[in-house]
Write a structure and sequence with these properties.
The structure is a homodimer of 320-residue chains. Chain A is of the alpha+beta class and 320 residues long. Helix content of chain A is 33%, strand content 25%. Chain A folds into 2 domains: 141 residues, PurM-like, N-terminal domain (60s Ribosomal Protein L30, Chain: A, 2-Layer Sandwich); 151 residues, Alpha-Beta Complex (Phosphoribosyl-aminoimidazole Synthetase, Chain A, domain 2), CATH 3.90.650. Chain A has 10 helices and 13 strands. In chain A, helix 1 runs parallel beside helix 3. In chain A, 55% of the residues are buried. Chains A and B meet through helix 1, strand 2, strand 3, helix 2 and strand 4 of A and helix 1, strand 2, strand 3, helix 2 and strand 4 of B.
């Protein structure tokens, strides 16, 4: 790698996102120097996307830049935190003209989402290696109002912020599964350009008793809430918010695993007491079940039968 | 990857390092929740080590766990920051018995160094992929006392915290270069178990006018200080601190590129005004040259000739 190529890459990453007054020193020194909020907790989350695992070589780089940041912002949303800063570590197999175009697209997608949520890229590392992208995000939330996984209580309602199964169906279609005809652009967007539910996350402060973002599949992620809270749940599958194309696929193939274990939804799944039921409906949240004292997850199919989902979901042995 | 393997990995990473009172919520939720110091700046740095680039498949996993954290702590040292928290994103090609042993060794090396410096592992992500390790560290430093790269002034002395060239010579030996006989354990330790100069970094607050850690080679890293400060430098190569084995190699091969561009030294290179000269000598720092108004880096060989080092050093097109 020549020095001029090094400088070119630097140019792509030296000023991504929004400039912020709480960044004392950004990219270009040994460390970034940042000024946290004195009265709030600092929320941090780190996630890696690997080529061939989380995305394909031909995927649109701009969407990938968006997604690499979005999946991390989704973790902040699930804590009720307001985003502030990001760091980016990227491994690249090498640099040529095509790769530089790819980098420009990636940077553009990352930048647009970062600006939309007031995030500043403050540090990074670029190394040679198989293509992979690690982003860490940093945000703020008042300590006592942070949404956690361990507060669900018997009788709480279980809610979803939006539809599940779209991304999983888009992935199946890419893998060659026949999902019928139609316009798949919305489905593709759900897979490649997830929207972090940050506004809702903030509104759930003081309302949700527990929350998580649905990245590995609804059953697996709700399972984390149940396990950490020491409770169980009954889901009413007829109440699951599904897009028409997913609903048709589920009906045709009797495949409830798609919306329950598909993953990559990046909606919030949370629990809240029934006093908030009307307010949550106003916010567009879908009540899909309730928390039970009896442990385990029971899913009631529309025909009244019980469906036992594979709770491992899309599991990368992640530990965060 | 089975659920039990997932749990096994979780066990290795769920409580690494020292427990700290400023960690509100550690590993196991969407985000870690942390309590920064109200009066100090938060210093963050992220670095990736890739198998086949930064380390070899046969390398000792415990040393690698040490090094993955050490290279990041070295960045905090170069800012004069005191370390607090770390996050770890690791991509693994898969898990078998051998890999689990590897993980146990890695975790052990990471843990020992983290405990030594009071660092708590607060979050992470584990994914499938070619083996690579990304660590982000977080520390504290009073804003006005943070060491940066841009404060070197004409007339300042240039200092090194310790010897350069050992790691590069160890690497050459691994690559089959004949470096003579002897005991190479110290040399190997310098390559595989670098010691972050955190105590010195704190002592340099208010003393050093600029600082950087030497990871890509002395010439390249000092070059960053010179560029950011808008100055030049003259180095006296006879003043470079070299181990006997490196000194002998340099003399025999007339190879000044080894200590100047070799990389992986993880010593601090810094500038300071002459009023601190005696104090810095007491601290074991080596004065190796001085800052000049004239830009560029000039190295005077012991024979009085000028040596022009390749300043690109060990360059991964890093941008932090």
């Amino acid at each position: 790698m020549s020095v001029s190529e090094f400088q070119l890459i630097q140019r792509y990453f030296s000023s991504l996102g929004q400039s912020r007054g709480d960044v004392i020193l950004g990219i270009g020194d040994d460390c970034a120097l940042l000024r946290p909020r004195p009265e709030e907790a600092l929320a941090v989350s780190i996630d890696t996307l690997v080529e061939g695992v989380h995305f394909s070589p031909g995927d649109d780089p701009e969407s990938l830049g968006h997604k690499a940041l979005a999946v991390n912002l989704s973790d902040l949303a699930a804590c009720g935190a307001e985003p502030a800063w990001a760091t980016l570590a990227i491994a690249l197999p090498g640099v040529n003209t095509e790769r530089l175009q790819w980098l420009a697209g990636f940077a553009s997608g990352f930048d647009a989402l970062a600006r939309r949520y007031g995030v500043s890229l403050v540090g990074g590392d670029t190394t040679r290696g198989a293509l992979s992208i690690t982003v860490q995000v940093h945000g703020f939330v008042p300590d006592a109002l942070a949404l956690r996984r361990d507060g669900a209580r018997e009788g709480d309602g279980i809610y979803l912020s939006g539809m599940v199964g779209d991304a999983a169906l888009a992935l199946r279609r890419r893998q060659g599964v026949d999902i019928g005809g139609g316009d798949f652009s919305d489905l593709e967007a759900r897979l490649h350009r997830p929207e972090p539910r940050l506004a809702l996350g903030s509104q759930l402060r003081g309302v949700a008793t527990a929350a998580i973002d649905v990245s590995d599949g609804l059953a697996a992620d709700l399972g984390h809430i149940l396990e950490r809270s020491g409770v169980g749940a009954t889901l009413d599958l007829s109440a699951l918010p599904l897009s028409p194309i997913v609903a048709a696929f589920v009906t045709r193939h009797d495949d409830w695993a798609l919306p329950l274990s598909g993953g990559d939804d990046y909606e919030l799944c949370f629990t809240a007491s029934n006093q908030h039921r009307a307010r949550l409906a106003q916010l567009g949240c879908h009540r899909i079940g309730r928390v039970t004292a009896e442990p385990g997850l029971r899913c009631l199919r529309p025909d009244g039968e019980i469906f036992a989902p594979l709770v491992s979901g899309y599991e990368h042995f992640r530990h965060d």
